[in-house]
Amino acid sequence: MRKLWLLLCLLLVACGNNGPKPWLGYGEGEDAFIGAPQPGWVSSIAVKRGDVVKKGDLLFTLDDTQQLAMRDEAKATLAQARAQLQQAQAALAYATKELHRQSKLVAAHAGAKATLDLAVSSYDQTEAQIRQITAQEQLAQATLDNAEYQLSQRKIVAQVGGRIEDIYFRQGEYVPASTPVISLLPPQNVYVRFFVPEKDFAKVKMGDRVRISCDGCAPNITASVTFIAQQEEFTPPVIFSISNRDKLVFKLEARAPGGLAIHPGQPVDVTPIR
């Protein structure tokens, strides 16, 4: 009876080994590198490695002393232009009344034509002054809008959610413009990179569906082939292989909408879905 049981076990193992060998690979991720469009001193870092952030969360701030001064100066210039505009509008209202009065007097032959001409000239000058001050007010408003925008760029927020992978600058350090300060990994940027032996390469096409499995992974993870290398390469040492000893392989990548629920660097088995 014991021998029969052992024989059955061996038959089951043999049957299991007859299935196709999975292609070997690993999880991969494309980090988003977050920098600032302006240079400056780092005032604070609002996150730490491993934190998961959402779109709109504060990541870090830069010193904003200069930007605050520019904003305040622009506010003062705009306030001055608006005050001048109010004065000019009051002067225009007076010039309008005076013009009407002189027009009536001349029409009634009770006023001098020279006085009417002076009223017309005063009205035209005041109206031209209002147009000039209005243009200055618009320019001052645009300057203020730009100053407030520049100030807002000193607080860097996440444009996409993900996990903080690394922090390259700390509080008190100077950051050049467009230099990455933080890297984060959006979930949708996680994919698998795997390697197909040359004998199986002709069977794989772009868009093919594959099943991904790994230790501790959720069941039934699937993805689509999105990249196929056009040149073979020697099996790289990063492949986590137990029995596969093929000398030449082709590199492929597979992705899924929203990313894959695996960790970058995690060994995976990839099998085609026929």
Secondary-structure element series:
HEEEEEHHEEEEEHEEEEE
The figure for the number of domains is 3
Radius of gyration: 37 Å
| Major beta-sheet overview | 6 strands, antiparallel, barrel
Strand content: 25-35%
Shape designation: elongated
**Strand line-up across the major sheet:** 1-10-14-12-11-15
Ranges where pLDDT stays below 50 over 5 or more residues in a row are: 1-17
Features:
6-stranded antiparallel barrel, disordered N terminus, OB fold (Dihydrolipoamide Acetyltransferase, E2P), Elongation Factor Tu (Ef-tu), domain 3, single chain, alpha+beta, 274 residues, 4-stranded antiparallel beta sheet, 3 domains
Please tell me about this protein's structure.
Helix content is 38%, strand content 28%. With 274 residues, the chain is α+β, with helices and mostly antiparallel strands. It has 3 domains: 20-30 and 187-272, Elongation Factor Tu (Ef-tu), domain 3 (Beta Barrel), CATH 2.40.30.170; 32-63 and 154-185, OB fold (Dihydrolipoamide Acetyltransferase, E2P) (Beta Barrel), CATH 2.40.50; 65-152. The strands form 3 sheets. The chain has a 6-stranded antiparallel β-barrel with strand order 1-10-14-12-11-15. It has a 4-stranded antiparallel β-sheet with strand order 2-9-7-4, with no helix packed on it. A 4-stranded antiparallel β-sheet has the order 6-5-3-8, with no helix packed on it. It starts with a helix and ends with a strand. The model is unreliable at 1-17 (pLDDT under 50).
Topology:
Layout: H1 2-17, E1 23-29, E2 32-35, E3 40-45, E4 52-53, E5 58-62, H2 65-107, H3 113-152, E6 155-157, E7 162-167, E8 174-175, E9 180-185, E10 190-197, H4 198-201, E11 209-213, E12 221-228, E13 233-234, E14 248-255, E15 267-272
Antiparallel strand pairs: 1-10, 1-15, 2-9, 3-5, 3-8, 4-7, 5-6, 7-9, 10-14, 11-12, 11-15, 12-14, 13-14
Helix pairs in contact: 2-3
